[in-house]
Amino acid sequence: MKITFVGAGSYGFTLKLIVDIFNFEALKDAELALMDVDQERLDDMKLILDEYFKRINYNKKVVYTKSLEEAVDGTNFVFNLVRIGFLKGSEQDMDIPKKYGLFQTVGDTSGVGGIFRGLRTMIHTMELCKAVEKVGAPGAVILNYTNPQMMLVMAANAAAKVPYIGLCHSVQGTTRQIANYIGVPYEELNYDAAGINHMNWITRLERNGEDLYPLFRSLVKERGIFEPSQDDEDDIRAKLGPVRLDMLGRVGYMVSESSHHFSEYVPFYLRTQETRDQYKIPIDRYKWNIARKQKHQEELLEGVRKGQLPEMEKSVEYGSGIVNAMVTNVPYKIYGNVMNKGLVTNLPESCAVEVACLVDKNGVTPCHYGKLPTQLASLCKMEISVHQLALEAVLKRDRRYVYWSMMADPVTHSVLTLDQMEKLADELIETHKEYFEGYFI
């Protein structure tokens, strides 16, 4: 069995996922291939992994390559971890819109940043799918951790027949946060969730058949939406945050994505300096996230050069569990991003949704959810339109769809005029033209 990592220089995922994989007995003989276009990042990852492999006595030859076709040749599983445009591209997606008065927090899935990261990455995704379809092992599966999930799942569906599953940690992360907030052991919490990636809604919250939403809402009313917080990242991640606690009070349900990131999905919180201050929204949080990851990576490398690698526990990411379930036929439940096909009945069938899925030797089988509460579906539909238009821009190679995607985006049209949107789109297309050769002429 061969497992491939594309974009293997990833600071946030590669090491974590490999540690997870080797926590499963059935996967300890897996062959690994790591591919990245950045040789320095690939070399750094090799240095770290060499130390980890010594610790676990893994002696198989690992392929490190800059060739996509070599990496996916004969592979059974592909983890897609790429960031097309590198850090510079993401910073441009954040900084150029500021000149027009448009502010973002993460910009990797929604808003102008999400649109342009999506345009760059959908082109790569379709190439990846075709490569895996051509030279991968029969039944090869792509497990995608790159954002924007909805665009990429839809692009993969349009490009090839290779199974392509979008993975995130927001559902399992948020339900853990909720359990902590209401003081219920996580293993006793039962929940249902559905929607789209980063706008997935926890629609059932129970323990032993008791509805926990009344308790949750009453605690928020008592405590207010502003939780005490420190600057420490672990503390911030433990918090539900003011934007989504406010939204809980407005629509009745908790959304899965972090407070600052969710503010980019709806038109209510980022539109003015007053609202940004009111809800304590950190602009350019993505840059802060990357700086933190880079610092952690540098510290990791410094330790490895001294022969020191910290102990690492298995994470809550779904990827390794999917591989194990497909190899061993031990059933495993995840929340995955898949094409809708009637799963969420009041969202378009042509979009990707995030729903519960069963994994076994037959692959990833999505579970029918049914109808989302109407107020939640209406919020999802705003975002779905943006992603569908961005996909059309790539499939038809037509920049008008880029304009229309920005026109549909709730934050963008709450701030910019139509002329400003077109001017901004043109500037970003020109800025990223090396990734758009043959597109948007």
Class inferred from helices and paired strands: alpha/beta
Any idea of the CATH class of one domain?
Alpha Beta
Tell me which CATH architecture of one domain applies here: 3-Layer(aba) Sandwich
Largest sheet: 9 strands, mixed
Residue share in helix: 40-55%
The value of Rg in angstroms is 21 Å
CATH level-4 homologous superfamily of one domain: NAD(P)-binding Rossmann-like Domain
Query: What's the N-to-C terminus distance?
Result: 43 Å
Number of helices: 18
Care to give the gist of this entry?
The chain is of the alpha/beta class. The protein has helices spanning 14-21, 39-56, 68-72, 86-98, 111-135, 149-159, 170-182, 213-223, 233-237, 242-251, 259-262, 273-278, 285-305, 319-328, 374-396, 399-408, 410-415, 418-431, and strands spanning 2-6, 31-35, 63-65, 77-80, 141-144, 164-167, 190-196, 199-207, 210-211, 254-255, 332-339, 352-360, 363-366.
